[in-house]
Design brief:
The chain is mainly alpha-helical. The chain folds into 3 domains: 5-395, no CATH class; 410-507, Tetratricopeptide repeat domain (Serine Threonine Protein Phosphatase 5, Tetratricopeptide repeat, Alpha Horseshoe); 512-562, Serine Threonine Protein Phosphatase 5, Tetratricopeptide repeat (Alpha Horseshoe), CATH 1.25.40.10. The chain is 70% helix and 0% strand. The protein has helices at 5-23, 37-46, 52-60, 68-81, 85-110, 118-134, 139-143, 148-165, 170-181, 190-199, 205-215, 218-235, 250-269, 290-305, 311-324, 347-363, 367-391, 398-408, 413-425, 429-442, 447-459, 463-476, 481-493, 497-510, 515-527, 531-544, 549-560. It is elongated and about 95 Å long. The termini are far apart.
């Protein structure tokens, strides 16, 4: 059986088109405020799209991570679509569809080094690429605009792997790997995936030896090491995503690692009850540590002990481990126990392993059994597609995201806090108070939770109750300019102008560019009869944000009265 290049391109285009059709409803979603989408949009708006200054910013900014190529795509989206969320989401859908087509091409090249027949090779490549394209896990990185980093990084990683398998020049492989690093620090472990492919199916170690294979990747490993160092430095700063070493005990980190390693394969097979957020401490049950530990140890032991007999198991499991470990509990990022986006590419070696197992069963089965196997596979694909379509609406807006998380984790402080903030942005302050109070009951020593509840109470006309929670926020985090500012608002509402002035001044001492604090300090100073000082702060507010009409009117009124 011969497969022409035209037929391969046709199959890739079909995969591309079906993937776009499946995920296109995600273009009906909006930007997720409080989940980085708003920050990406604010940066693009501030820089006025893809300008030269914006390009320089993309390659020099390091907060929260260093991913200049991802920033450039957001800037380009803003240049093309402005604040139309549909255009931004369409870019993510197209990127995922491109990745699915690239996966097919890469697998076709990789499986050429195996003993599969042409028909088996084509079936495995198409089947694995199809699952990669439609699996419900992929909804998160496609529908959440800020997860663009995983999509773009995978584009470069698959391109790098394809170039490596086909024997492209080293500078091509290296350039694609650098591109992946400039999209996400998750790419740092990819040279070790190449070593796994060297073991099986390429078997390059038999001719070249491990020493030479490692040496030829030393530059790539070194670049990955530099990116790891940069990431750890930037994310360990105040406000960074990296959880400090001392905040999670070593034993708990190890257990989180084992549970995350076991979580993705299990959910890959049975993707029910997926969540947009798995709270640390709630998302995984630590008192059931023994099951994932035993499972991971057994599979790892089999892979090592049976590496000669089952090289595919050793290579696939090894590749999976090195792809997931950078995002496991050993290097905890954020407050989630696991995240489906971390399996975006890591699922690929596991799917290849399943594909190989299906071929093994197929070869040894009679016709009735083959019909049954084909039926199961078709049903599984349909099930994945239906689950993906059901998961897409979860990511439509902030309310749908956090309502779905609360349905599974009602005792999550973070989920209650974010849902309360979402309700506040919709001016549903009474509902926001309910969820804010629930968040405070769950975890009272979180400054932002206390502050958000205080703000919601203030906006429902209860400044007395608000002051208590805002004072708690200031006590927990005395360097929070926002907490001091909001406390000043509540105090001013109760007529305590002198105390309010002190809070506004403290907020500005912490953050001199807090526009709202300058304006409201001006108002409070005017009430206290300190007109010259009030005018100074009105002027400073206008300097920082020239479109503040209230500050301009107040300044004009005071000047007219002089």
């Amino acid at each position: 059986m011969n497969v022409s290049r035209t037929k391969l391109v046709g199959i890739a285009l079909v995969i591309f088109a079906v993937t776009i059709w499946l995920y296109w409803p995600s273009t009906h979603g909006g930007f997720l405020n409080g989940m980085d989408d708003d920050e990406e949009l604010q940066d693009s708006t501030r820089l006025n799209g893809l300008t030269w200054n914006a390009v320089k910013w993309a390659f020099t900014a390091t907060e929260p991570d260093y991913y200049p190529l991802q920033r450039l795509t957001h800037l380009l989206d803003y240049q093309l679509w402005g604040t139309n969320a549909a255009g931004h989401h369409a870019t993510s859908v197209i990127l995922h569809a491109l990745n699915a087509a690239l996966v097919f091409g890469f697998l076709w090249a990789l499986l050429g080094a195996t003993s599969l027949t042409t028909g088996e090779r084509l079936s495995v490549a198409v089947g694995v690429a199809a699952v990669f394209a439609i699996h419900p896990f992929q909804t998160e990185p496609v529908a959440w605009m800020s997860c663009r980093t995983h999509l773009l990084c995978t584009t470069f990683r698959i391109g790098c792997a394809w170039a490596y398998v086909t024997g492209a020049r080293r500078w091509v492989v290296g350039g694609l790997y650098v591109g992946a690093l400039l999209c996400s620090p998750m790419a740092v472990s990819f040279p070790f995936v190449m070593l796994a492919m060297d073991y099986f199916p390429l078997r390059r170690y038999e001719q070249l030896g491990w020493g030479r294979l490692v040496r030829e990747k030393l530059v790539l490993i070194g670049l990955g090491g530099v990116m790891t160092a940069v990431t750890m430095i930037t994310e360990s700063r105040t406000g960074g995503m990296m959880v400090r070493v001392g905040s999670i005990p070593p034993l708990q980190r190890v257990l989180l690692m084992f549970q995350s390693l076991a979580f993705y394969p299990w959910r890959l097979l049975w993707p029910m009850h997926l969540s947009a957020f798995y709270p640390l401490g709630l998302g995984l049950v630590l008192n059931r540590w023994w099951a994932p530990v035993i499972g991971v140890v057994i599979v790892t032991t089999l892979a090592v002990w049976g590496r000669s007999r089952w090289p595919a198991l050793a290579a696939a499991w090894g590749a999976y481990l090195v792809l997931v470990l950078p995002a496991s509990g050993l290097m905890q990022r954020g407050s989630q126990a696991v995240a489906l986006r971390y399996a975006y590419l890591a699922m690929l070696p596991l799917l290849l392993l399943v594909g190989g197992a299906v071929v093994w069963v197929w070869r040894r089965s009679a016709t009735p059994a083959r019909v049954a196997v084909a039926g199961v596979l078709v049903c599984e694909l349909c099930f994945f597609g239906l689950r993906t379509r059901a998961q897409i609406p979860v990511w439509r807006n902030d309310e749908t995201v956090w309502r779905s998380v609360l349905a599974q984790f009602p005792d999550s402080e973070m989920a209650n806090r974010y849902f309360a903030a979402t309700l506040s942005r919709q001016h549903r302050f009474r509902e926001a108070v309910e969820y804010g109070q629930r968040a405070v009951r769950i975890e009272p020593e979180v400054a932002v939770t206390q502050m958000n509840l205080g703000v919601a109470l203030f906006l429902t006309g209860k400044p007395e109750e608000a002051i208590g929670h805002l004072q708690q926020a200031v006590r927990i985090k005395p360097d929070s300019a926002e907490a001091h500012y909001n406390l000043g608002l509540a105090l001013e509402r109760l007529g305590k102008v002198r105390e309010a002035i002190a809070r506004y001044e403290e907020a500005l001492r912490i953050d001199p560019d807090l526009v709202e604090a300058h304006y409201n300090l001006g108002v409070a100073l005017e009430k206290a009869g300190r007109v010259p000082e009030a005018m100074q702060h009105y002027q400073q507010a206008l300097k920082l944000q020239p479109d503040i009409t209230a500050a301009r009117d107040a300044l004009a009124r005071l000047r007219a009265g002089q």
